[in-house]
Amino acid sequence: MSREATMSEPQRRPGVVRSVAELRDLVSAWRRGGDRIGLIPTMGALHEGHLSLIRRAQQSCHRSVATIFVNPLQFDRPGDLAAYPRDEALDLERLAEVGADLLFAPTPEEMYPPNFSTGVMVAGLTEGLCGEHRPGHFGGVATVVTKLLLQALPDEAFFGEKDFQQLRVIQRMARDLNIPSEIIGVETVREADGLALSSRNRHLSQSQRAAAPTLYAVMREMARRMTDEGESAGKAEAWGRRHLSEAGFEKIEYLELRDEEKLQPLDAPVQNSRLFAAAWLGAVRLIDNLKVA
Question: Are strands 102-104 and 15-17 parallel, antiparallel or unpaired?
Fold first, then answer.
């Protein structure tokens, strides 16, 4: 749906703005011209999963605006924040490859000025899965995404389904706060061996990278056991935990069947159910999910 002028130079580097005022000026001008705006919030270290979000945005929006901000509020471990990969020059090259129109890359001071004291919390959906193991994480996510949506006021905003709990939290937050942007989930992008793309995959050692696809393979087998053989969720989960441990996963935070809407635990697959997993290989935490029914 992109305008001809937008797509005529797909290899051009997108414009870069770092202040909310600059972002709003550009977006307002595009909107006055009749353009629909698509927002793709990221923390950088862009890979094909992020680029798929931009391509999806370009299908229904005239302008695609990517954001890069490594949000300190959503990190529960200071070391993880410090180690998070940052390479804006390379990210700009990747944005140019897909013809993104704009990069909003604010500083921490722009996002959280002195005496910043407001947060956004979403109850219920954040109480299990990653919410249980990463205290404060979803408060940080909800706060920064609320700010980005209000700063850009996009028609649509795009998030990957790999972080499915995050997607549901953001959809509920936008609905509850009457933020006039549609929150759209985009299917997880995977390597040929099934490993879900993640910026953290680059930290895997060679042996860990070889073991990592076992997470998705185990989830697929669990889904088959439950749907084809009628095995209970508890029995399938016990089988899955055992096989992940044998493959070298040192800590399994959760491996659970839940419904997709309220994220409540299930004993057996029902319509719109999904498997959720989080497990560690060395210092790398991998998450994934798989639709079961």
Answer: parallel
The residue whose two tokens read 């940080």 is 140
Q: Other C-beta atoms within 10 Å of 232: how many?
A: 13
Could you say which DSSP state residue 109 is in?
Answer: H
CB contact at 8 A, 185 and 260: no
Tens of pLDDT, residue by residue over 4-34, are: 434 444 568 899 999 999 999 999 999 999 9
Q: How far is CA 79 from CA 70, 85, 228, in A?
A: 13, 12, 43
pLDDT of residue 12: 80
Q: Quick one: what percent of the chain has pLDDT higher than 90?
A: 92
Comparing CA positions, the residue from 274, 190, 192, 286 lying closest to residue 244 is 286
User: What integer pLDDT is reported at residue 4 of this predicted model?
Assistant: 43
Distance CA 252, CA 145 (A): 28
Question: Residue 50 catalytic?
Answer: yes
Please classify residue 74 by burial: count the beta carbons closer than 10 Å to its beta carbon, then call 0-12 exposed, 13-18 middle and 19+ buried: buried
Please tell me what DSSP assigns to residue 254. E
Give the chain's mean pLDDT.
95
Provide the pLDDT confidence category of residue 76 given band limits of 50, 70 and 90: confident
Tokens of 173: 């937050």
- Token pair of 90 as six digits: 């390379």
Q: Which tens digit of pLDDT belongs to each residue from 165-221?
A: 999 999 999 999 999 999 999 999 999 999 999 999 999 999 999 999 999 999 999
The single residue of 50, 62, 133, 137 carrying the catalytic annotation is 50
Domains in the chain with CATH codes: 4-186 (3.40.50.620), 199-291 (3.30.1300.10)
Distance, CA of 178 to CA of 197 (rounded, Å): 32
Euclidean distance between CA atoms 18 and 275, whole angstroms: 38
